[in-house]
Amino acid sequence: MRLYYPKEITVEWLMGLVENGVEEGRYIDFKRAIELKEPAKKLDYAIDLVSFANAGGGNIVYGVAEKKGVAHSLYGISSNDVDSEKRKLIQIAEDWVDPKIPGMEIVALEHDEKSFLILHIPESWNAPHMVCGSEQTLFKKRHGSQNCIMDVDEIRLAFVSRRDELKRFSEYRIDRIKKSLGGSAGMRLSGSAFVFAHVVPLSGIRSLTVLSGDDLQHSVEVFKSEPFSSERSRFNLDGYLHGRIADPEDGFGWYVQVFRNGLMELVDTKSLWYQTRDNFGSDSDRLSRSSHALVEIGDTEILVTNFVKRSIDFLGACQVPAPYFVFLTVVGLSGRILKKQNSTKMQDLMRASSSMTIQEQELHIPEILISSDDIQQISMGLRPLFDILWQASGRKECLNYNSETGIHALLKQS
User: Fold this and answer.
1) Integer Rg of the chain from CA
2) How far apart are CA 3 and CA 23, in angstroms?
3) pLDDT of residue 348
4) Is 70 exposed, middle or buried (0-12, 13-18, 19+ CB in 10 A)?
5) What is the pLDDT of residues 14-69, one digit of tens each?
């Protein structure tokens, strides 16, 4: 059982802290009670938060008494209103820490008629964090069981590391896309337009995640139903591959690659549809080389939304923590014009002037951060990606979203 930084916080884990005499350290701290009334206590709590977030993350366990830094007894918190205590912890974190710590969670446990709160602070992608709710502005970091002031060099390194991590993956992503298009990534692709989506856990960028063979094989269950029911699933050099052959001679119509470090990749060639000016209003055909084709991209947006949802479900089941970055690239739409899904209004045709054609052959959309596993929240979270894609076609925003709910109009049909 991993006692310092567990994959899952349970009563058994809580009991093991005392039974095994676990010491406070870089990843864990014990508090017998929750004391937040006085400003000095709020400051101490905020310092604990930023110290863990600026290091490797960790857990603050409320209700465990310590003796000389060692878990001694399951004391339990004195409050009769656990939900109220959780709200206080969250509110102080909001007010006293800048920038906010993404992915912070509070787990409530009951044992022997006693209540315990475990505050989980993940390793932050947005470090360095500082305490800002008092007259002091403090940057601190966990060293062993102590919270220590970060010096100028440590603060500078934290800022640089954050930029370098995303830059490193962005460069890897572009190289991976080039190899996929060139057929040197191990899978041949059919079609002339391509969608690449990546879900990337922060721990994957930092090479802290290694999925087991059982974990990889579990992805079969996640991606076995529409729109991802595959004809071919197998282990491969990178991890595990799910895909569907479009044509034996042409190669894959789509595939999902699950990497051993938790990276998730979708490559699709079949969700983009078009209508020319001549057949506007008739049945759509596959994307062709005709000039100024009107492209319906709603199905692609729903495909990406479902891919992100299932990837987060899979990573959560494998205990790969949030946050997750989502990257989107579309290749082959140069000279095309985006059109609202299933619209046959003449005004859409009239608006489709040559000035609204997409100019770029490769559209690399800036990444966004997703932490929720709720499909509607994911749909709303992905909208900035799709807005940018539509802006490449001269539109202000994605036209496939419901203006009242903020959710993709086709989501219920997915």
Assistant:
1) 25
2) 10
3) 55
4) middle
5) 999 999 999 999 889 999 999 998 989 999 999 999 999 998 789 999 999 999 99
Please say if the pLDDT value at position 201 is more than 80: yes
Residue for token digits 């010096």?
151
**Token pair of 146 as six digits:** 């102590």
Neighbouring-strand partners of residue 362: 331
Residue 360 in tokens: 């770029």
Give the integer Cα–Cα distance in Å for 216 and 262: 9
Question: What pLDDT, in 10s, does the model give residues 335-360?
Answer: 888 888 776 654 555 555 667 889 99
Sequence-ordered list of residues with C-beta below 8 angstroms from that of 67, at least 6 positions apart, any chain: none
Count the Cβ atoms, other than its own, within 10 Å of residue 235. Answer: 12
* 208: pLDDT strictly greater than 80: no
Tell me: cis bond preceding 366? Omega within 30 of 0 counts: no
Tokens of 224: 């076995």
Give yes or no for a contact between 292 and 335, defined as CB atoms under 8 angstroms apart: yes
Q: Phi first, then psi: give them for residue 121, nearest 5 degrees.
A: -110, 110
57 neighbors 176 (Cβ within 8 angstroms): no
Query: Region 375-394: what's the mean pLDDT?
Result: 92
For 78-192, list the strands marked E by DSSP. Answer: 97-98, 105-111, 114-121, 130-131, 140-143, 146-149
Return phi, psi of residue 32, to 5°: -70, -35
**pLDDT tens across 116-144, in order?**
999 999 878 788 999 987 777 789 999 88
Give residue 230's pLDDT. Answer: 65
Encode burial over 190-217: b for 16+ CB neighbours within 10 A, e otherwise. bbebbbbbbbbbbbbbeeebebeeebbe
Distances (CA, A) of 190 to 1, 180, 230: 47, 11, 16
Two tokens, residue 232? 């071919």
* CA–CA dist 387, 149 (Å, integer): 41
The reported pTM is: 0.72
Half-sphere exposure of 232 (CA within 13 A, CB side): 15
